[in-house]
Amino acid sequence: MVFELRGGWGVKVNETIEAMRDQWKSMTGMAGMFVTTIFLGITIQPVWDKDEVRAFGEEGTTQGGYILLELALIGIFTFLIIWLARKNLELLIKGFIMFSLYFSLVYTVYPYIALIMQIVLNTQENAFLIALILDLLLMITLWRFPEWYIVNLVGVLVGAGVITMIGISFVPTLIIIFMICAAVYDHWAVNGSKHMLELADTMIDLKLPILLVAPKDKGYSFLDEQEGVMEKTVERPSKEDWENPKVGQIKVEKTGRDALFMGLGDVIFPGMLVISATTFLPQTGVVLGSVPLSTFFGMLHLDPLLVGLGTLFGGLVGYLGLMTQVAKGKPQAGLPLLNGGAILGYFITGLIVYGPSDLIQQISLF
């Protein structure tokens, strides 16, 4: 789910290009975090590409029943968080999510700690312990000072770890099914039941990195945001528009506290298809030994990487389409366009690199 938060009175903008020009900084910043998260996942993929690390083992990579389980867990998690928030149990929510984020960070931080130690000290001993300590310090900082750049740092690192863990656990065919189901759910949750908006309010109030924040202006502070901002994001014409209405005229009020928000899931779903493509498509093409970490932990092959990058590009095209809607100031379900673009990118690039036979894997329910 993606939306723009306006600190002052919102304005209904009829010209999309003008609205996007006004918000290009925040939109570019969000796109940068989108790409960075997925690129980090690509670099650590060789580290975790092992059968014993996959969520459901080697056999589970083609079993659709586990995708149904993942979907059920997402639904349960969402409604549990909303229920706890309504019961004013925010501290319990924050503790549970911070605990989960702490261990998710390890998947991204540990490989880079190991790489630095290998280069500097020629050893990787205690790299995992050091990663745990650094993650703890980062979580303490997040708890005590959850400004937008701390939230984004943790969100990007967590997102990279999550897309890698899911991407190496399921073949692309199952990931695509997962993405389609999630896109349908996201559309209903934002535009139908609207409970996703309530969830976003809770995450903003608790200052948790389940979303990414792209400020529009330098003076923005995430610390000032409170619960209920989604309810306050109401579009209204400016005072000048009321007094001097003109057909086709656009009035955009400038405020210093605007920001663009994107749910971390909007990055994770396209990203996990990128990782799945690089993991499970035939390992052909030139071996890329210069990709970070691959020298010590594994290799990436050019052909599956090209399909992964094509998938990422498709996701960016979907992101551009999404921004044309977000620019109007209304919350939008991000996954239909983001996932749709990534899936199209996967198939188009895959057909060019491999042909149709390698793009659809055989799967089973159990």
Walk me through this protein's architecture.
With 366 residues, the protein is mostly helical. It has one domain. It is 63% helix and 5% strand. A three-stranded antiparallel beta sheet has the order 1-3-2, sandwiched between helices. It has a two-stranded antiparallel ribbon with strand order 4-5. Helix 2 runs antiparallel to helix 13 and helix 7 runs antiparallel to helix 14. About 9% of the residues have low confidence.
The ordered string of helix (H) and strand (E) elements is EHHHHHHHHEHHEHEHEHH
Q: Helices and strands: which structural class?
A: mainly alpha
Q: Sheet with the most strands?
A: 3 strands, antiparallel
Report how far apart the termini are: 31 Å
* Number of helical segments with 4 or more residues: 14
* Principal-axis shape: globular
Kindly report the spatial arrangement of strands forming the biggest sheet: 1-3-2
| Low-confidence blocks of residues | 4-13, 231-239, 245-257
Tell me how many strands there are.
Answer: 5
The total number of structural domains is 1
**Rounded Rg:** 21 Å
**Whole-number mean pLDDT:** 82
The proportion of residues in beta strands is under 5%
